[in-house]
Amino acid sequence: MTEQTTIYPIGTPGKPWGEAEKSQWLAAQTKKRSYQQQVVAKLEAMNDRFNIEQYGELNYTAGDYPLYVVRNKNWNPENPTILVTGGVHGYETSGVQGALLFIDAELEHYTDDFNFVVFPCLSPWGYETINRWNPDAVDPNRSFVADSPAQECALVMDYLSDLGVDFLAHVDLHETTDSDNSEFRPAKAARDGEVNTNWNIPDGFYLVGNSENLQIDFHAAILAEVEKVTHIAAADEHNQLIGAPVDREGLISFPVKQLGLCISLTNAMYATTTEVYPDSPRATPEECNRAQVAAVIGCIKFLQ
C-alpha cells in the first residue's frame, strides 16, 4: 500500500468528522441515476414470475426509498435456501444489476432443488448517488451488527429474523473500483481522523471469505465458474489483494462477523463476497454483470 498525500476537501486532517462535516459531505452528493427506472421497474416487469415483497422503506431527509426482496413462487420448505444480496454498497453497479440478471435469467432454472431469497439493492440512495456510504456517512458493509447504525442493514436483519429460514449459502455481490482509492478511502480516513493508505486495485475478479470458516473448495468452484466469463485477479508483488494475503488464487479472507460484513448476516455454512473490477480495460459492464451471475451459479453447482 502507498500513503495518500491528497487531503480530502472536507474536515480537518487528524480530526474525526462531527455533524457539521457530515452535513457538508451530504450536501455535496447529487443524484446521478434512477433507482426507480433501473431497479424497481425491472422488478415490476418480473412481478408475475416471482414473489416480490416490499420489506421496508428507507426514510432519510435525502429521500424515501422502498426496499424489495424476491423469492421463488414454488417455495419448498424441504429444500435448502440460498441468499443473494446486491447493492450493499450502492455505487457497485454490477452487484445490483448482476442480482437482477440472475433473477430474470437463471433463478427459475434451479427452484426444483433450492429456495432463493434475493435482495437486489440494499442501498438505493447509494445506488442513485454512486456512494459507498448511506446519507449518514455510515458504511452498510460494516454495520451488520446488533442495533445497527444503518437503516439498510437493520431492515434486512429484521426481515430475515421474521422469515425464520436457515440458509445453506450466501453470495454477496460487490465490486472493487478505482474510486475506492480516488474517493472512498480518502473520505473514510478524513471521516475517522486517520491517515489514508491506498491499496493496489486488483485487475479482475476475486472473492472474500470468512477466515473463521474458510470453505476453500466452495470458493474454488465459484472461481472456476466465473473464469468462464472473466479473468481472475492475480496477487500483487506481496502476494496480496487489497492489502490482504491470498488464501489461494482469487481468494482472501477476513473475520467477517467481527467486521460486521454482510456475509456474517446468517449462519450459512457457505458464504462469500464477490469482487468485480469494472474499471478493467479487459472487462465490459455486461461482462461484470455476467460474472456476478456466474458466481451465484458456481455456488449452486457446488451445492447440487
UniProtKB/TrEMBL annotation:
Database matches in Pfam families: Peptidase_M14 (PF00246)
Family statement: Belongs to the peptidase M14 family.
Top-level taxon in the UniProt lineage: Bacteria
Gene3D superfamilies noted in UniProt: Zn peptidases
Gene Ontology biological process terms in this record: proteolysis
Name of the protein: Peptidase
Domain Peptidase M14 residue range list: 31-304
One example GO MF annotation: zinc ion binding
Species: Idiomarina aquatica
